[in-house]
Design goal:
The chain has 20 helices and 22 strands. It is an alpha+beta fold. Helix 12 (371-391) crosses helix 13 (393-408), helix 13 (393-408) packs across helix 16 and helix 14 packs antiparallel against helix 15.
């Protein structure tokens, strides 16, 4: 790129006028500034003049189109001189003014002149007072900003609106711009939106329904019927609703008849950045105009929005959860997700588990609980509470009031002290972030460190703000309200002795359900579940002796039923295992019950009919038996015909020649004959003696 010669460079004349400067008369007008700068440039012999103008832009920052165009040409080296009427026209942020006049312009060899302040960069000896001028200009801008803030705050503290916009559904009275009246058409749309939200529809679903109904969006309605109140761009006749518009309508307390002011607060007068005001900083004036929705519809809609669930993708197993967004983990505080799993048989079953455990975002345990078990617990709690309230409404109200008073006197002071500590740290972080930005703009802090510290402070701010909301919620829970008790009694009467749990019943009666981690294993598994009701919080009724006995009996019946089911499952499992083993065995044996064997008699292969069969047929069996007999006989007799005997006379073993032979030799036979003869002789002698005696 060729270098631009000095005599070809532009003399930039910069003019700026803010809305605040318009009140100071004609001397600062754009036309007068142009004439003044042109006269100075002409008298100084400067040519190639070019004007850069910002009309209606503040000097607290440099996000101005005219200044940015001049800065782009300066960066390109096309500008040789910049002339302004005074330093306040150039800017009121002394850090950024100093950066341009002391660093950027000298680096680009640009001469800078502020006529009324006698500032000329070619005469550095006359510029010693310039930094103080910049500080005074910034102080003036800050002082003006603070004065305007105090004026607006004073007006808002009196309940007066300082904004030109009004909520959709209202109009201003022509004779009193501060008074709002309900628009007959738009107010019905607002009420319809709250009714849809109370039925459980989410903002995207409501937006789609309004689009299908061809309802004009707020800006299009205002443009068509109240153009004098339309202060934003709008497309005529547009009916394409956005979910964010629905969310904004549902969040506005003005529809309850309240005036809500100071919703945002400026954090830095230099950058015009704003933040959302806290509940303590916001100004709320109740019952200032006609409400469009009543408090019951408002709270019911917000309860349903709080527990709204995401849509299930098409094609997945869809089972409606009866406790949407109501179940929380007791340890990490996150919502518990509704899970669908399947048994081996393919039958689905549903349960709740900690979402942090599933997503691995926090080191938490599963906190698993079956949906049927939880539904039964909730239904039983509602039934018992309903019976208790219907039996004695006054006693229930007094009991609840005394409980709340005991809580209010016990623990809030510690939480209030903690809240004050967190708020002090938040204010300190705001100050640190502001000074961090100033150091970065002035070049005292490198960009890398700036981004690192900003990320650290922002993360800490988010964490502290979430803690503030939690503590405030806990403090609110300790406040007793007779109106809340009455509203809960009316709700519980609506669902008197319910036979089954429904989604509508749960969302109306229950605020949240806190599930603790289970202890022990089946059948001794125990799990604590805390149920918090809308308007009254947690309320536990002690069990009566009858209920304890019924619970014990039911537990025993459940245990017996589970044991019987377990036994049946074991039996079925055994039968299935045996059938499987039999089928595998028959398949391995080519359709036979037992595997092949070799016959011990003939040596052929055969399929036996039992585990003890050793021979292929009866012939082999008989042949084997005969062989065994002969083997046994041979073992006993050898080659003799008869088995070995023992001689009755000498006692020696011998092999007889016939089956009746009992004596081994002739000698033993002779001895046996003599013994018989002697025995005969003795019998005979004894018989004769007996005859003689007679």
């Amino acid at each position: 790129m060729p270098k631009i010669r000095d005599f070809d460079r532009v003399t930039a004349l910069y003019e700026r006028l803010s809305k605040d400067d318009e009140q100071q008369g004609e001397s600062n007008s754009i036309l007068n500034q142009k004439r003044f700068l042109e006269d100075f440039a002409r008298k100084s012999g400067m040519t190639n003049i070019k004007h850069f103008t910002d009309d209606g832009y503040t000097g607290r920052n440099f996000n101005r189109p005219g200044f940015q165009a001049m800065l782009a040409e300066a960066e390109a080296g096309k500008i040789g001189t910049i002339i302004v009427k005074d330093m306040s026209r150039f800017g009121r942020n002394y850090l950024e003014v100093g950066f341009y006049t002391e660093i950027l312009f000298p680096k680009k060899q640009i001469r800078f002149i502020a006529i009324n302040n006698s500032v000329d960069s070619d005469k550095p000896q006359d510029n010693d007072f310039t930094p103080f001028l910049n500080i005074m200009n910034e102080w003036y801008a800050k002082d003006t900003s603070n004065k305007i803030k105090s004026i607006f705050l004073s007006r808002m503290s009196d309940g007066k609106r300082c904004s030109g916009s009004i909520p959709y559904g209202y109009n201003r009275l022509p004779e009193d711009k501060q008074t709002l009246v309900a628009d007959p058409v738009a107010s019905q749309v607002v009420k319809h939106i709250f009714e849809l939200a109370a039925e459980g529809l989410t903002p995207p679903t409501i937006a789609r329904q309004l689009t299908e109904e061809k309802v004009l969006i707020p800006s299009a309605y205002t443009l068509q019927y109240h153009p004098e109140q339309c202060n934003r761009k709008a497309e005529y006749g547009c009916t394409n609703w956005n979910a964010n518009t629905v969310r904004e309508i549902l969040s506005r307390q003005e529809y309850l008849g309240h005036t809500v002011l100071r919703k945002t607060i400026g954090t830095n007068f230099k950058t015009d950045e704003r933040r959302f005001a806290t509940d303590e900083e916001r100004l709320v004036f109740e019952d200032t105009h006609e409400p469009i929705v009543d408090s019951e519809l408002w709270e019911q809609a917000h309860r349903r929005l709080k527990h709204a669930t995401r849509r299930i993708k098409e094609g997945t197993h869809k089972e409606e959860c009866l406790l949407p967004g109501l179940v929380y983990c007791a340890d990490c505080g996150s919502k518990m997700s509704y899970q669908t799993n399947y048994y081996k048989s393919g039958e689905p079953y549903h349960s709740f588990r900690c979402s942090s455990y599933g997503n691995r975002t926090v080191n938490c345990t599963i906190h698993h609980i079956s949906d049927k078990v939880l539904y039964q617990l909730v239904l039983r709690s509602i039934q018992r509470l309903s019976s208790h309230i219907i039996a004695d409404e006054c006693g229930f109200a007094e009991e609840l009031k005394s409980k709340w008073e005991a809580q209010a006197n016990g623990k809030p002071q510690k939480q209030k002290d903690e809240l004050q500590t967190i708020n002090r740290r938040l204010n300190e972080l705001d100050r640190l972030i502001g000074s961090l930005y100033e150091n970065f703009i002035s070049g005292l802090l490198p960009e890398k460190q700036y981004k690192s510290l900003m990320k650290k402070y922002s993360t800490e701010q988010d964490s502290l703000e979430s803690q503030v909301s939690e503590i405030q919620e806990k403090l609110e829970q300790t406040k007793a309200s007779s109106a809340h008790i009455g509203r809960f009694i009316r709700l519980i009467k609506k669902y008197k002795q319910p036979a089954e749990l429904t989604k509508e019943m749960a969302c109306e009666l229950i605020d949240k359900i806190v599930v603790h981690e289970a202890t022990g294993k089946k059948p001794n598994r125990q799990q604590q579940v805390d149920i918090y009701y809308n308007f009254i919080g947690q309320f536990d009724l002690p069990l009566s002796e009858k209920e304890i006995a019924e619970a014990r009996q039911k537990a025993e019946q459940e245990a017996a039923k589970k044991a019987k089911c377990k036994k049946n499952r074991q039996r079925e499992s055994n039968v299935a295992h045996q059938a499987k083993a039999k089928a595998e065995r028959w398949a391995a044996n080519d359709g036979h019950k037992y595997p092949k064997r070799i016959c011990e008699q003939c040596g052929k292969e055969f399929y036996p009919n039992s585990t003890r069969q050793r021979f292929c047929n009866t012939d082999c069996t008989k042949a084997h038996q005969q062989a065994e007999k002969e083997k046994k006989r041979f073992a006993e007799k050898g080659e003799h015909t008869f088995r070995q005997k023992v001689c009755k006379i000498c006692g020696k073993p011998f092999w007889p020649s016939n089956g009746q032979e009992v004596l081994c030799s002739e000698e033993c036979k002779a001895i046996n004959r003599r013994q018989k003869q002697l025995a005969y002789y003795h019998r005979k002698q004894s018989g004769q003696k007996a005859g003689e005696a007679i």
